[in-house]
Amino acid sequence: MSSPVTWVNETLLRDATERRIFATLAIITALLVVGVLAGAIGPRFLLFQIALVGMYALLSLGLNVQWGYAGLINFSVAAFWGLGAYSAALLTAPNSPLGLGLHPVYGFLAAIVVSAVVAILIGIPTLRLREDYLAIASLGLAEVIRVIILNERQWTAGSSGISGIPNLLSWLPLTSAATTASVVVVLIALVYLFLRRIHRSPWGRVLRTIRSDEDLAKALGKDTYRFKMQAFVIGSVIMAIAGAFYAHLNLYIDPTDLVPLTTFYIWIAVILGGTGSNRGAVVGAAVVIAIREGTRFLNDIGFIQSLGLDLAPLRLLFVGALIILIMRFRQDGLLPPKDELIWPSAHKGGADTGSSASVSSDGGNVSSESTTDSSSNGGDNQ
C-alpha cells in the first residue's frame, strides 16, 4: 500500500507545473484564512463562497462525465440544474404550490429521478445521431424548461418564485452557512470518489475510446449508444444534485436563475481545468467563482476609484482573457488527465508488465489488466 505522500504525488502533484498550481491555490487559501482572522472577510461570506464553489464543482463534474469522458455536447446544464432545484423546492418548501413541506432527502431523491427521466427522454432520439444534434436538442431543452417553469404558475409559482425552502441539517450545532459548506464538501467527496472509480473501470475506458473514435468502439463490439446514454444520465443526475443543493443554499428559487450564463460558466470551468480530469473540473470551478465573485469588489479599490473606471461588469472579459492565456501556455487545461487513452497495463513505460498496479488517467493505482480483456469485457461488466 502506498504512503499518503506517494498518493498525493501520483494523484495531485504529478509535475512541476501542477505543483505550482496547487501552491498558488494554497497561498490564496491561506490569505483568505488570514483575512477572516483579521476581520477583513466575514466568515459567513467565506462559507457561502465555499458552498458556491462546491455547487459549481458538482456541475463541472457532471459535465465532465458527459463531455470529458464520452464527448457528449450538453448545452442544457442550467436546465438539469434547474430541475434539481425546483424538485427540491417544490417538495420541501411549505409555501410552495404543492405545499408538502417534506424532508430535504425527498427533494434530493426527486431531483435524481426527474433528471434521470428527462435525460433519458432527451437522449433516446439524439444519442444515436451525430454530436451536433445533441447540442441543438440540449440547447432547446434549456429554454423549454425555463419557459415551462415560468408559465406553469399553478405548479411552479411562475415568476414569483418559491421561498421558505428549509435549511439542510438544521439540527446540527452549526450555523446554516457552516452546515451547507460542510454538506457540499461531503457531496463533492462522494461524487469525486464515485467518478474516480468508474473512470478507471472498464466502463470508463470504453467511454474514452468512444470519445476518441466511436467507430473503433463499435468495431470492438461495444453498444456505444448504451454507454453514451449511461454517461449522459449520470452527468445530468449530478447536475440535478447540485441544483437541489443550491435550493437549500439560497433558500429561494425563481426562473431567472435558469440563465444560459450558468451553462457558459460550467463549460469554461471544465475547459480551464482540463477536459476529462476530475481534479481539473473542481479547480476550474474554483477559478471561475474566484473571478466571478472577486470582480464584484474591484470598484472598492482606491486606485481604481481614482481612475473613475467601472471594472466589476467586465468579469466575462476577465474570464475570456484567462482562457486565452491558458490555451496559449497550457493547452490541455490547468490539470489535464495524464495518459488518458493508455490502458492501465501499459503504464509505467510498459517495462514492468508484471506489475500489479498502474497509474490511472486521473490518478491513483488500479489493478492491471490486459488490453484485450479491458476492451472485450468492458461492456459486459456494466
From TrEMBL:
<feature type="transmembrane region" description="Helical">
    <location>
        <begin position="231"/>
        <end position="253"/>
    </location>
</feature>
<dbReference type="GO" id="GO:0005886">
    <property type="term" value="C:plasma membrane"/>
</dbReference>
<feature type="compositionally biased region" description="Low complexity">
    <location>
        <begin position="367"/>
        <end position="382"/>
    </location>
</feature>
<feature type="transmembrane region" description="Helical">
    <location>
        <begin position="47"/>
        <end position="65"/>
    </location>
</feature>
<feature type="transmembrane region" description="Helical">
    <location>
        <begin position="171"/>
        <end position="195"/>
    </location>
</feature>
<dbReference type="InterPro" id="IPR001851">
    <property type="entry name" value="ABC_transp_permease"/>
</dbReference>
<feature type="transmembrane region" description="Helical">
    <location>
        <begin position="105"/>
        <end position="124"/>
    </location>
</feature>
<feature type="compositionally biased region" description="Polar residues">
    <location>
        <begin position="353"/>
        <end position="366"/>
    </location>
</feature>
<dbReference type="Pfam" id="PF02653">
    <property type="entry name" value="BPD_transp_2"/>
</dbReference>
<dbReference type="InterPro" id="IPR043428">
    <property type="entry name" value="LivM-like"/>
</dbReference>
<feature type="transmembrane region" description="Helical">
    <location>
        <begin position="21"/>
        <end position="41"/>
    </location>
</feature>
<feature type="transmembrane region" description="Helical">
    <location>
        <begin position="133"/>
        <end position="151"/>
    </location>
</feature>
<keyword id="KW-0472">Membrane</keyword>
<keyword id="KW-1003">Cell membrane</keyword>
<feature type="transmembrane region" description="Helical">
    <location>
        <begin position="72"/>
        <end position="93"/>
    </location>
</feature>
<protein>
    <submittedName>
        <fullName>Branched-chain amino acid ABC transporter permease</fullName>
    </submittedName>
</protein>
<feature type="transmembrane region" description="Helical">
    <location>
        <begin position="265"/>
        <end position="291"/>
    </location>
</feature>
<keyword id="KW-0812">Transmembrane</keyword>
<dbReference type="GO" id="GO:0015658">
    <property type="term" value="F:branched-chain amino acid transmembrane transporter activity"/>
</dbReference>
<feature type="region of interest" description="Disordered">
    <location>
        <begin position="346"/>
        <end position="382"/>
    </location>
</feature>
<keyword id="KW-1133">Transmembrane helix</keyword>
<feature type="transmembrane region" description="Helical">
    <location>
        <begin position="312"/>
        <end position="329"/>
    </location>
</feature>
